[in-house]
Amino acid sequence: MRFENIDEIDRQILQYLSANGRLSHAELGRLVGLTRAAVRERVSRLLENGIISHFTIVVNPLKAGKSLSLYFNIDVTWERMDAIAAELLACEEITNVYQMSGRPHLHVHALFDDQDHVERYLQRLRKIEGIVSVESEFLMARYKERGALLI
């Protein structure tokens, strides 16, 4: 993917950091042909400009004990949209919440320990005022997944 507001060196730095966020400035410098100080300046500028929002890790949910990944389409009333989204965000099972276009609904991703955990969570959803209906789907296979935009 190409962006107008970054040059080729910045794009390379972002690509290397996306693959391994633990690379030192010296290692990045060797990879892109710059000094450690020059790379540090570029990474600092990318952070200041908000192009890099933060550094993080990616946890493999299966290895961490979360064997079920589900997606929910949750139909809600317009007036309760924000309150329901806030309530979902407070749940430890929820990883992502999106308001979608069209009818008032939220697209939600969640991770669960097992089928019993899913059932207990669905019972909690039934008690939230303003939820009209819930559709859920189990994730069967991951072919491509990005935690953030890769350059």
Structure description:
The protein has helices spanning 8-19, 25-32, 36-48, 81-89, 115-126; strands at residues 68-76, 94-99, 105-112, 131-138. It has two domains: 8-48, Winged helix-like DNA-binding domain superfamily/Winged helix DNA-binding domain (Arc Repressor Mutant, subunit A, Orthogonal Bundle), CATH 1.10.10.10; 68-138, Lrp/AsnC effector binding domain/regulation of amino acid metabolism (RAM) domain (Alpha-Beta Plaits, 2-Layer Sandwich), CATH 3.30.70.920. α2 crosses α3. The chain has a four-stranded antiparallel beta sheet, covered by helices on one side. With 151 residues, the chain is α+β, with helices and mostly antiparallel strands. It contains five helices and four strands, in the order αααβαββαβ.
Short descriptors:
151 residues, alpha+beta, Arc Repressor Mutant, subunit A, Alpha-Beta Plaits, 2 domains, four-stranded antiparallel beta sheet, 36% helix, elongated
List the helices and strands and how they pair.
Layout: H1 8-19, H2 25-32, H3 36-48, E1 68-76, H4 81-89, E2 94-99, E3 105-112, H5 115-126, E4 131-138
Antiparallel strand pairs: 1-3, 1-4, 2-3
Helix pairs in contact: 2-3
